[in-house]
Amino acid sequence: MQATLFALACCLSLPALAAPESALIADYAEQARQENPAFNGFSAERGKALYFAEQQRNGKAISCTTCHTADPRQAGKTLAYRKVEALAPAANPERFSNPQKVEKWFRRNCDDVFTRACSAQEKGDFITWINSLK
Ligand code: HEC
To answer: Does ligand 1 lie within 6 Å of residue 55's CB atom?
Structure first.
C-alpha cells in the first residue's frame, strides 16, 4: 500500500504533490524564455550530456562526475578528497530544496568545469535529468 502511494506521489505532477524543486524549474523556465525566445522546454537528455561533458583543465579531464561520480546517487569527493553527499534527490532528498544553495553551487561548479556560468536552460535541463533518476 505504501509503495503504491509512493509510486502515485512520485509520478503525478499535481501542484499539491509538487516537489520543492518544481518552483526552481519554473523559475529557470522563465529565465530560459528570456535568454532564448525559442526555448521550448527542458531536456533530461541534454542535462545528462552536461553532467558527463569533459573539459580539459591543466592537462586533466574535468566534468561534474569528477566530484559527483558517474552515478550522482552515490557520494563523491572533492579534489581535496572531502566527501560530497549524493547529488540526486532520489538518494538525498535535501538536494534542490534551497534555491540559494543551488545557485551558489551551479555558479561555482559550472565555472570550475566550463569556466563560465551555466545558462538557465542548462540548469533546468540538469535538474530535469537528475530528478528523473530513481
Ligand atoms: C571540484 C568538485 C566539483 C565539481 C567538478 C562539481 N561539483 Fe557540484 N558540488 C561540489 C561541492 C563541494 C558541492 C557542495 C557540497 C554539497 O552540497 O555536498 C556541490 C554542490 C552542487 C550542487 C548543489 C545541490 C544542492 O541542492 O545541494 C549542484 C546543483 C551541483 N553541485 C551541480 C554540479 C554540476 C552541474 C557540475 C558540473 C557542471 C558540478 N556540480 C561539478 C563539488 C563539485
So the answer is: no
